[in-house]
Each structure stands twice: as structure tokens, then as C-alpha cells.
Design a protein that fits this description.
The protein is mainly alpha-helical. Helices cover 57% and strands 4% of the residues. The protein has a domain of 93 residues. The protein has seven helices and two strands; from the N terminus they run H-H-H-H-E-E-H-H-H. Strands 1-2 form a two-stranded antiparallel sheet.
Length: 160
């Protein structure tokens, strides 16, 4: 006859047995060929420089950092510095201020904080700082970026 059909639970167990775990497929610390620690741009302020010093060793250890990343990482750190400054001002003066006419308006620091947070999140996803972007980086690093096996598609047993 034919092969027995598996239940949904059996399919899920079989699928999890075949897929590499996130830990096994993640970039490992202590690569044999770690990326060099790149120099911090002198234009960065003290808070941005602290963020640079915090991030670079981690990125270098995972092997995802190259000298080409200096500019985007500097932009991220500068945005972080401005974001911290804006958040401190919001905490000091509040999110709403009184306009010259006496009506309450949103503090300009709120817009600055929001713009910098947006910029930081876009760059963060490129470097793998978010859980979702780390998963994409690990898939690419392991050559597992295909979501659908196209060869099996015509046979009716495509896998996701």
C-alpha cells in the first residue's frame, strides 16, 4: 500500500528533529579568525563612544564586524547618543511643554527621541541586535536561507 500518513503532532516532532536549533546555528564566540576591533571615529561624543566601546568587542567576537561597518556603526552610536540626550530632556522637562501662546504642545525632544529610536532600530536589524534579525543572520551564515525547497514543490512534498 502506501506510506502511512503522519499526524500533525508527528509532523511537528519530525520537523523539529530535522531543523538545526538556534544555538547550533548561531555565530560562535571565539571564531578562529575573529574580526579586528575597529577604531572609534573621533567625531563621536562621550555617550556614543561608550556605546561603541560596548558593542564593538561583541560584534568582533561573533565575526560579523568588518572595517566596512565603521560608518553604519558610527551612525548607530551617534543616534544612540542623541536618543539618550533627548530622553534625559524629556525626563527633566516632560513630554509636553507650554507654547508661547500658553497652550500645551509636544516637546521637540519627543520628536528627536522618536527619530533617533527609528534610526537605531533600522541599523540594529542590520547588525543582528534584535531577535528577529539575529535569526536571519544565522540562516544566511549557515546557508539555510531558503524558506521553501523548490525541487520538492512539484512532487507535492515541499518543506518549509
Amino acid at each position: 500500500m502506501g506510506e502511512k500518513r503522519k499526524t500533525k503532532g508527528q509532523n511537528e516532532v519530525a520537523a523539529t528533529d530535522q531543523k538545526p536549533s538556534v544555538e547550533r546555528s548561531s555565530p560562535k564566540l571565539g571564531h578562529s579568525d575573529p574580526a579586528p576591533i575597529i577604531e572609534c571615529p573621533p567625531e563621536l561624543g562621550p555617550v556614543a563612544r561608550q556605546e561603541w566601546d560596548r558593542l564593538v568587542p561583541h560584534l568582533a567576537a561573533t565575526g560579523v564586524l568588518t572595517h566596512l561597518d565603521r560608518g553604519p556603526l558610527a551612525i548607530y552610536c551617534a543616534a544612540y547618543g542623541l536618543w539618550v540626550e533627548a530622553i534625559e530632556a524629556i525626563q527633566k522637562f516632560g513630554g509636553m511643554i507650554k507654547s508661547p501662546s500658553g497652550y500645551p504642545v509636544q516637546s521637540p525632544y519627543v520628536a528627536v527621541a522618536n527619530r533617533q529610536a527609528d534610526l537605531m532600530m533600522r541599523i540594529a536589524s542590520e547588525f543582528g541586535f534584535t531577535p528577529a534579525s539575529r535569526g536571519r543572520l544565522w540562516m544566511v551564515a549557515n546557508g539555510d536561507s531558503e524558506l521553501l525547497d523548490l525541487e520538492d514543490l512539484g512532487k507535492g512534498n515541499a518543506t518549509w
